[in-house]
């Protein structure tokens, strides 16, 4: 009699099948790529079939993989829904918010701390990922995501419109500045936020293009995969970063970072509050309080 499969691999396989990439699945799940590869190989060995066509361009499901993926996808969705329903029946005071790492660290966490001083009975969980994970957003009570209005349902509410200004430390400015001409940024070390696929955020390439300057990442630049790392690199005087107002305001007020270029605003883009399908009283209280904070 064959031993039944361990179900721990379900979410890993679902992510690989959905994203078409072992690397992207590993990043989304907070695992290493070898760990993801190992779990997929274990399932293949137990089933005696190949589930993926592996190539440099990604990982495509085989026919057997497609059959298994459809079943796994449904199972993961059902498990997540059951978990949400169970949580809501037992934890009305618990709120789960999904967002990206930079927004969680620089904007959300300080305000959640203030909220919990006023509402000590509230239990707040912040789940962060650098990618826009629709499944994770659905699993939580609310999401705070960056994008354009068309990216979100009609129930979404704009929290912080996108306003971006180049920032660096006073010491870096003294060595490399002044940056009174946008062309001077093209000759300075720049700090890039690297994301999978097309970036929803303003990039240095697009910021410079708005000023008639063509420049791609170059030698001396630094690419980092979370916004927290970008700001830490700026504070370490590794280059100039794009600073999102609302996220870097504390550093600008303290003087640890200074604005060194023209602010660019895109009114149709920014951080949006996306309520979940079923919102508890505690979630409503928290979201209303956060919106008022802006």
Describe the structure.
The protein has 294 residues and is of the alpha/beta class. The chain folds into 3 domains: 7-90, Winged helix-like DNA-binding domain superfamily/Winged helix DNA-binding domain (Arc Repressor Mutant, subunit A, Orthogonal Bundle), CATH 1.10.10; 94-154 and 271-292, D-Maltodextrin-Binding Protein, domain 2 (3-Layer(aba) Sandwich); 161-269, Periplasmic binding protein-like II (D-Maltodextrin-Binding Protein, domain 2, 3-Layer(aba) Sandwich), CATH 3.40.190. The chain contains 11 helices and 11 strands. The protein has helices spanning 10-19, 22-29, 33-47, 63-90, 101-118, 134-139, 170-176, 204-209, 227-235, 249-254, 281-293; strands at 52-55, 58-61, 94-99, 123-128, 142-148, 157-168, 191-193, 222-224, 241-244, 258-259, 264-275. Strands 3, 4, 5, 6, 9, 10 and 11 form a 7-stranded mixed sheet that branches. It has a two-stranded antiparallel sheet with strand order 1-2. It has a two-stranded parallel sheet with strand order 7-8. A hairpin with a 2-residue loop joins strand 1 and strand 2 (58-61). Helix 1 (10-19) crosses helix 4 (63-90) and helix 2 packs across helix 3. Mean pLDDT is 85; it is low at 1-5.
């Amino acid at each position: 009699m064959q031993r039944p499969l361990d179900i721990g691999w379900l979410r890993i396989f679902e992510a690989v099948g959905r994203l078409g990439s072992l690397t992207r699945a590993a990043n989304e799940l907070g695992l290493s790529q070898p760990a993801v590869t190992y779990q997929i190989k274990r399932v293949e060995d137990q089933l005696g079939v190949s589930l993926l066509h592996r190539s440099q361009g990604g990982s495509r499901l085989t026919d057997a993989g497609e059959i298994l993926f459809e079943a796994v996808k449904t199972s993961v969705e059902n498990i997540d829904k059951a978990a949400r329903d169970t949580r809501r029946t037992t934890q009305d005071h618990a709120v789960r918010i999904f967002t990206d790492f930079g927004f969680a660290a620089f904007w959300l966490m300080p305000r959640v701390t203030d909220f919990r001083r006023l509402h000590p009975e509230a239990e707040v969980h912040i789940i962060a990922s650098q990618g826009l994970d629709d499944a994770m957003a659905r699993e939580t009570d609310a999401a705070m995501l960056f994008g354009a209005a068309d990216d979100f349902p009609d129930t979404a509410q704009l929290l912080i419109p996108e306003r971006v200004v180049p920032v660096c430390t006073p010491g870096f400015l003294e060595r490399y500045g002044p940056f009174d001409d946008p062309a001077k940024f093209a000759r300075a070390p720049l700090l890039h936020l690297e994301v999978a696929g097309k970036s929803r955020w303003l990039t240095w390439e697009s910021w410079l293009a708005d000023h008639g300057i063509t420049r791609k990442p170059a030698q001396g630049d630094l690419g980092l995969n979370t916004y927290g790392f970008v700001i830490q690199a700026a504070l370490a005087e590794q280059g100039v970063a794009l600073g999102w107002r609302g996220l870097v305001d504390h550093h600008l007020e303290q003087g640890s970072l200074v604005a060194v270029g023209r602010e660019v605003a895109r009114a149709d883009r920014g951080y949006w509050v996306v309520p979940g399908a079923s919102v508890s009283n505690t979630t409503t209280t928290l979201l209303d309080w956060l919106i008022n904070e802006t």
